[in-house]
Amino acid sequence: MERNILEIKNLTTCFFTDDGTVKATDRVSISVGKGQTVCLVGESGSGKSVTSLAVMRLIDYAGGFIQSGNVMFHGQDLAAKDLDEMMHIRGNKIAMIFQDPMSALNPVFTVGDQIAESLMLHQNMSQQDAFKKAIEMLRLVGIPAPEVRVKQYPHEMSGGMCQRVVIAMALACNPEMLIADEPTTALDVTVQAQILDLLRRLQKELGMSILLITHDMGVAAEMADRIAVMYAGTIVEEGTVERIFDEPRHPYTIGLLQSIPGFEGERGGELYTIQGTIPSITQLPTGCRFHPRCPHAIDKCRKEEPILREVVTGQQVACWLNEDVSNHFRNNQRANSIAGSKAEVNRQ
Amino acid sequence: MSQVQLQDDTVVETNRPGGQLPTNPVGQKPPGLWTTAGKKFMRNPYAVSGLIVLLFFIGIAVFADWVAPHDPAKVDFMITNLPPGTEGHVLGTDELGRDILSRLIHSSRVSMLVGFSVAFAAVVIGTLIGAISGYFGGWIDTCFMRLVDVMNSIPSLFFNILVLALFGAEFIYMILILSLTSWTSVARLVRGQFLQLREMQYVEAARAIGVSHWGIITRHLVRNAMAPIIVYATLMVGSAILSESGLSYLGLGIQPPETSWGLMLSKAQEFMLVDPLQALYPGLCILLVVLAVNFVGDGIRDAFDPRKKKKNPKRRLNKWNATSSK
Amino acid sequence: MTEYLVRRVLQAVLVLFLITVVSFGLMHAAPGGPLKVMLSPGMSPEAQLIQMKNMGLDQPVYIQYMKWVGNLLKGDLGNTFKNNVPVGDILWPTVWNTFVLMSVAWGLSMLIAIPWGIYNSTKQYGLSDQIASIVAYLGFAMPTFWFGIMLQQYFAMQLNLLPLSDMYTMGKEGQVSDLILHLILPVTVLTLVNIAAYVKYTRASMLEVLEQDYIRTARAKGMKERRVIFRHALRNALIPVVTIIGLDLPTLVAGAALTESVFNWPGMGRLFVEMAVAREYSVLMSITLLISLMVIIGNLLADLIYALVDPRVQLGRKGGRAA
Predict the structure, then answer these.
(1) Whole-angstrom Cα distance, residue A49 to residue B234?
(2) Where is the ABC transmembrane type-1 domain (chain C) (predicted)?
């Protein structure tokens, strides 16, 4: 495999609050290879978005900071760069798209203006050329009549259309890395599938890497080469999509998979839920962060925090009892395969 | 405009089966909105000092007859324009030999009376009209809102001047006209709150189980709109005091031999050459009272604002400055 | 667009009608009436009746009102009771004087307050921000006329630097340099009060915009912070600020009545106070009408500006800006 384009190593981020600084993520490590898609999966509040903001160093504007760890991009540590240097990387080498496309676009500028802006900044294009390129980009992301659309304002477009514009804007400078923070969550289901298709197609055409943040295991199954599961600010399991779906080892991952409707193959059964809620980052439990909700927790889980370690090639897990649990899971849900889950998702 | 959020956001989901979460002790009742707000208010040094100053002036106003060293209206031509620090007259005397301190103390009565009664009347009128307008909507709403438009099209100072000049500068007229020109903002606020609240589930639920219109308005809606109304009322006390002083300064408010800070200022301006300090005290009193009222109002607003307890932007900013100038 | 304008003008006419009816009614409902001021006490009842007939006061109020409107439509604002001077002769010079004072004060406060507010939004809780909030607290709590008196005492009486009051020194009427000297104190008073409010609006509006997603997008595109603030945030932030300031304008003109009285500035506000005491109905009606007209035009302008800078707003279309 090729060298990793992005390597996040032991990233710890904090936020300022009235009660002092609070850790939002704790020693998070993820790597993304060239042309790969890595999905960061977890419930809301698990620190996925914070991780993505930290990579872009946008966390500096959101009331937080990187406490320790590295974000290596092409051998440079983004975590150590100052904000001026980051300006040349943001939008140029690494681009980002956000959850709510309607609010991500500035309402008082035309979409053409907003796409052309980064081209003029990063590639020193003239305004005319930048506009031509903007039209091209709109065509690339599948917007009909781009010559007309380029002069329109965001409020004149639908949500799906706006997300296409946001993608066009992000890809205008041909970035090597795209961070997509829940790019389909705010959209209708049919539009969701279109946007995911678009991302996949563009990834092939442009050869970029994607870090996709989602809470939806179905989206992850469809898009990911690798999956990292986050819980309460840490990565609890990481591996290739096949390993995670075939043989999940962390009880939380297993819970996530079981709570996909229809995943267990039988209809009419009660939906599986993970009991309890994700703890707030200010009141983390001792030991394993998942143990209060874990059906298999043992004494050790309450005392010591497990670290992420490789159990098989291509799969890391942070759990004291991973062998037992996955056996338990395998025996009960043998019938389910990754193909089944993919079919379910595609049917949507 | 910042909306005061009324739902108590400290309520967390409770009683999940088997979910023994450390964050969430089951069965413990979260503190009420008013208790939390009260505690927050008392932690705010500006609000508390504002409250103390305000209480001080209220006390002086109530006990003016006992507190004041002299009769504020007693004219004595033997001791006109005494300088401050004279024995028996700490702040000196005015052009008619009246004790300035005593006059200041008695003037606080007018300010307090005007401030609180106008705020009260305006809130009553405004809440009533806003509530009816917002609750029933339709043509009632349209009529009332046109009325508000018309009221807002005449700058209130002009309206006040007009009425007081034509009908005579009586104290009761002043309170009446100040109330009549300041209810519109409360009405708009309450109407807005009502439009928002009446769509909410619990109001629908109340309607469904047959609670009367009046019951819904008083029980559910007014109680929920209470916090912003109180904030508004507090700030209105300050603006009424300012209006009174302005009108009295123009000669359209309090008439001699009664006294008020505004009236004292207009006299002091005439005698500016003789005694420049005379103009200082009444103005300072107005400034202090209105400042105190505004601090209290802001304190109440912050106490009810759930957003305020999230981040400390100051520390966040220091960090930001530090990183950006690296 | 035309439909919108027509609707707005009709609305405006209705509001104007209501305002004039209310003011007219109020004046004639007041006890005493103009006679109390006008007539000498020793006048015989017959002479009084003749006087009233001359002034048209013997007719029912609604007839008087219609006459007033009729004359108004012909461009005649009426004459004063006292000396029978045409209202326009008294009114227009004061309008101009108020305009001079207000435009200088208003322009100056915008020039200072908007950049200051923007700066404070980027350096929250910094020194400048704290000074601004002190200014705001003082500006809102201080009786403006008292501030004027204090300035007069210090700069005019004690230091003898600036003229105490009036618009021109006697004998120097029309001299710009003299006018400027006379402007300094009242403009300072008005500007301070305006700045207190405008800095607050600008800062709050900027802070709200800076929290928006599209600002994060702009940063994610690698825009420099300066460009984020001045291109992406400012335009969005100024929309509500300009609207509020536009709507505030007539209130400011009215509020200047006190400042004008303190500095003896021969403006509209001071004229209104004088005429209210003298019960010169035709002058009062004219000023009321003028101010209301300003309010309505100010509202309309605010809407038009809004539509101009915010592409989301389309005038005359339902679902546009809620009034």
Answers:
(1) 42
(2) 95-302
Query: What sign results for the dihedral spanned by CA atoms A116, A120, A126, A129?
Result: negative
Alpha-carbon distance of A200 to A178, in angstroms, equals: 12
Instruction: Give the integer Cα–Cα distance in Å for B50 and B297.
Output: 9
Query: Do residues C164 and C40 share a domain?
Result: no
Per CB-CB distance under 8 Å, the chain B contacts of A63 are: 311, 313, 316
- E-strand ranges in chain A read 4-17, 20-33, 37-41, 64-73, 76-77, 94-97, 177-181, 209-214, 226-231, 234-240, 309-312, 315-317
Number of H helices and E strands in chain C, helices first, is 13, 0
Query: Does A275 sit within 8 Å of B16, measured CB to CB?
Result: yes
CA pair distance C119, C136, nearest whole angstrom:
16
Nearest chain C Cα distance for residue A108, angstroms: 6
Which domain, by its residues, includes B112?
105-306
Report the chain A residue with the minimal C-alpha distance to residue B309.
Answer: A18
Query: Any CB–CB contact under 8 A between B161 and chain C?
Result: yes
Residue B316, amino acid: R
Are the Cβ atoms of A95 and C220 closer than 8 angstroms?
yes
Using the 8-state DSSP alphabet, how is residue B220 labeled?
Answer: I
Residues 6+ apart with CB under 8 A from A340: A263, A265
What ipTM was estimated for this complex?
0.84
Q: Which of A69-73, C40-44, C63-67 has the lowest average pLDDT?
A: C40-44
Q: How far is A46 from chain B (nearest CA, A)?
A: 15
Chains that touch B (3 or more CB pairs under 8 A): A, C
pLDDT recorded at residue B2: 35
Query: Is C223 close to A121, i.e. CB distance below 8 A?
Result: yes
Q: Does C32 share its domain with C155?
A: no
- Nearest Cα neighbor of B50 from B298, B276, B325 is B298
C100 and C31, same domain (yes or no):
no
* Reported pTM: 0.79
Q: C213-220 vs A159-171: helix axis angle to the nearest 10?
A: 20
Are C70 and C166 in a shared domain? no
C-beta atoms of B22 and A60 within 8 A: no
DSSP A59: G
In chain A the domains, ranked by start, together with CATH numbers, are 1-93+208-261+272-348 (3.40.50.300)
Q: What's B217's DSSP letter?
A: I
Q: Looking at residue B184, which CATH number applies to its domain? A: 1.10.3720.10
pLDDT of residue C169: 81
Helix (H) or strand (E) holding B106: helix B100-136
Tell me how far apart the alpha carbons of residues A303 and A310 are, in angstroms, rounded to a whole number: 22
| Claim to verify: residue C36 and residue C160 sit in the same structural domain | no
Residue among B13, B23, B309 whose CB faces A280 most closely: B23
Q: Measure C323 CA to nearest chain A CA, in Å.
A: 20
**For A179, which residue in chain C has the nearest alpha carbon?**
C220
Distance of CA C283 to the CA centre of its chain: 18
Query: What domain range is C106 assigned to?
Result: 94-309
Tell which residue, A187, A37, A194, has the closest CA to residue A98.
A187
pLDDT in tens, B124-169: 999 889 888 887 888 888 888 888 877 877 788 888 888 888 888 8
Give me the pLDDT at residue A15, please: 86
Kindly write down the DSSP assignment for every residue of A83-94, as one continuous string.
HHHHHHHBTTTE
Last residue of a domain, one of C16, C39, C74: C74
Give the residue among B159, B160, B104, B113 at the shortest CA–CA distance from B284: B104
